[in-house]
Write a structure and sequence with these properties.
By secondary structure, this protein is an alpha/beta fold. It has ten helices and eleven strands. The structure holds NADP nicotinamide-adenine-dinucleotide phosphate (NAP).
């Protein structure tokens, strides 16, 4: 009997991210060569969470590598919500800043939604303010959340048919699950959104041509949940005994899925790259392409 084992491509998100960053670097260079200032990302760090400090460092390094400027506003863990809002308002008004990112989590007493709502929509390169979330819902132009945008680029790069496909998204967060569901639906997929109360999750997933897991439950998606030939996108990141683990049993789905993103060098590098894309878009909306 002929083997039905599928040749599975393990997505190299880092290589794809690097290709996109090269194009971004060329665009930045082109702008700067005309005498304009470079695009600039402002990051706001409140408190001294080492993980947050490390994420900020990574984002600033990514900016520097493509010739983008970045500035950091650091506030102590004791900062009040008013103090954080003052910084956001100052950055909103700054002619020298194109994108604003407030690193989460924020200390107790500083409400993330209140801070997000204060970021000017044109500088909201995370795409998470109510205005940009609303624009996405309405299908209007606006900054899109970075992880979902990166997932769409991965699907596009691997020529995964989206129109008419059944996409199943596990997770309904504002940062990943909801926006990726909307982007897939706007690309004419038929989308099923799943969450912790979904019944017969495995059976629903088995029908997916595109399966996106954005949950945070290690290896939730097992090989027998995956339809042969499906595109499997693993967004989840959990750390177990110091090791990074995704939401998908990546090794197990090899030979079944058409593509699968690994939990390292998969979606993560694309997320930061989309932050750079959105910052350049914000700059070009102001200065022209
Ligand atoms: P979140 O806000 O915690 O949302 C998790 C979602 O998963 C919720 O909608 C929850 O359902 C659902 N869920 C939880 N347990 C479930 C289960 N057993 N079965 C089905 N659904 C379940 O998380 P998030 O911010 O979207 O992040 C999800 C994961 O992606 C995390 O591991 C995070 O670290 C990772 N992440 C990675 C990147 C990247 O760039 N690689 C970016 C963002 C997030 P309910 O709504 O019913 O509670």
């Amino acid at each position: 009997m002929a083997s039905t084992r599928q040749e599975t491509v393990v997505v190299d998100g880092l290589a794809l991210a690097q290709d996109i960053r090269q194009d971004l670097a060329k665009a930045v260079e082109r702008h700067v060569s005309t005498g304009r200032r470079a695009p600039c990302l402002a990051v706001v760090l409140v408190g001294d969470d080492p993980a947050s400090a490390s994420y900020i460092k990574g984002k600033r390094r990514a900016c520097a590598r493509i010739g983008m400027d970045s500035i950091e506003r650091k506030l102590p863990a004791t900062a009040t919500e008013r103090e954080v809002l003052d910084v956001v308002e100052e950055l909103n008004a700054s002619e020298g800043v194109d994108g604003i990112l407030v690193q989460l989590p924020l200390p107790d007493g500083v409400r993330p939604n209140t801070i997000a709502e204060a970021i000017g929509p044109d500088k909201d390169i995370d795409g998470l303010t109510p205005i940009n979330a609303g624009r996405l819902l309405l299908g209007e132009p606006g900054h899109r959340a970075c992880t979902p945008l990166g997932i769409m680029k991965i699907l596009e790069h691997h020529e995964i048919p989206i129109e008419g496909a059944h996409a199943v998204v596990i997770g309904r967060s504002a940062i990943v699950g909801k926006p990726i569901s909307l982007l897939l639906q706007q690309a004419n997929a038929t989308v099923t959104m799943c969450h912790s109360r979904t019944k017969q999750l495995a059976a629903v997933c088995r029908n997916a041509d595109i399966l996106v897991a954005a949950v945070g439950v290690p290896r939730l998606v097992q090989p027998d949940w995956v339809k042969p030939g499906a595109a499997v996108i693993d967004v989840g990141v959990s750390i177990i005994d110091g090791e990074w683990v995704g939401d998908v049993d990546t090794e197990g789905v090899r030979g079944i899925a058409r593509i699968v993103t690994p939990h390292r060098r998969g979606v993560g590098p694309m997320t930061i790259t989309m932050l750079l894309c959105n910052t350049l878009d914000a700059y070009e909306a102001h200065f022209g392409a």
